[in-house]
Amino acid sequence: MAERYSSTDLDRWTSDGAVLMPRFFAEAEIAPVLEDFETLFADGYPHARAAADPQSGETVRMPPREQFQHTRMMPFDCSPALNLLALHPALIAFARAALKTEDVRLYQSISWAKFTGQADFDQPFHMDYYNHTLTAIGDEARQRTVNFSIYATDVSDAHGSIRYVTRGEGDKICGSLRPGMPDVSQQEALRGIERSGAGPSGTVLAYSSDIYHRASNLTAPEGRRYVLFASYKAAMNDAVDFVAWPSSVPREWSRLYSADANPWRHFFEHGSPEQLACLNIPPPGNPFWTETTLARTQARWPQWDATPWRQAMTRRA
Ligand SMILES: [Fe+2]
Asked: Residue 187, CB half-sphere, CA atoms under 13 Å: how many?
C-alpha cells in the first residue's frame, strides 16, 4: 500500500508534539480489529445516563469514573488482530524515527470503547505524563514518548473526537512549566484554539504525553467509538513506564499456566522478533538465549516458532 506517513508528518510531530495521520491503516487491516472490539465490548452498550452540566465555577471538574469503564490493558481476550496492532511494524518504524533510536519499547496498550449515553466523556485539558513518569518528559527526542491513538471506528466530532493543541500553543497559554492540569481560565483559552482529532477509521493520531488534549462527549445517536492507545519510549528510558507486561495476565491460574488459554500466546504465535523485542523479549543473538532458556521458553509456548532465535544461537556457538 501507499506510504502510511511522510517526512512532513515526522517533522510535525517533532515541532508540534502531535500529528494526525488519516487512514494510516487500510480498511482491510482494521476489519478484524473492529471484530475484536465487538467481541471484547459486546456487553458495553449502555443504559442511558444523563450528561453532566458543562464546566462552570472556580474549579476544574474531574471526569467521572464511568468514562474508563470499558478500558482493557493488553493482552486482550480476542483474536491476534487487536493484540498485535500496537506492534504493527509501521508504528514501530514511526516510534523509532520520532524517538531517534532503533531500540524502542511498547510500554502501554489499552483498548477503549465508548458509547453514546454510557458516561459523560467530556474531559478537562490535561497532559498524560503525570501517570507515565514521576518527573517530567525530557526535552531530547530520546527522552520523549510517542502515544498512538488508533481509530477502529470512524471518529467524528459527534463520536467524541480528541481535542488537542500543539506544544507551542499550549506553552503560550499555560507557560513553559506545563502544569498537568491547567486552571479554569487556561482551560477556557485552550478550548478557544483547540484542534479536532476527528478522522475515519484507520486514522492514527501520534501525540507526545506532554501535549494538552481532552476527550469530548459522544452525541451521535447510538454512537460508538473504539480506539486503541499504544505508547512507545526508548528502551533505556527507565523513568517512563505504565505497566509491567508480565503482570498483565489472566487472574485465573488455570489460564495463566495454560499455553492455550493465556492470551500472551498470540504474541509468541504471531509476533516477529522485532515485535517481541518491543515487549522486552530478548532478540535473536542476545546472550540471554542458551539451549536451556530456549528450551524452557519453547516448552512454555509450544506454538512459538523459535527458528530465528535458534539460528542466531547456532551462529554464535
Ligand atoms: Fe489523556
From this structure: 20
Q: How many angstroms is it from 283 CA to the middle of ligand 1?
A: 32
- Full residue range of the structural domain in which residue 306 is found: 253-316
Looking at the chain, how many residues does it have?
317
pTM score of the predicted model:
0.94
Measured in angstroms, how far is the CA atom of residue 128 from the centroid of ligand 1? 5
CA atoms of 283 and 277, how far apart (whole Å): 6
Residue 248, domain member (yes or no): no
Distance 125 CA to ligand 1 centre (A): 8
**51 confidence band (pLDDT: 50, 70, 90):** low
- Cα of 237 to ligand 1 centre, how many Å? 21
User: pLDDT digits over 166-199, tens only?
Assistant: 999 999 999 999 999 999 999 999 999 999 999 9
Residue 216 sits in the same domain as residue 295: no
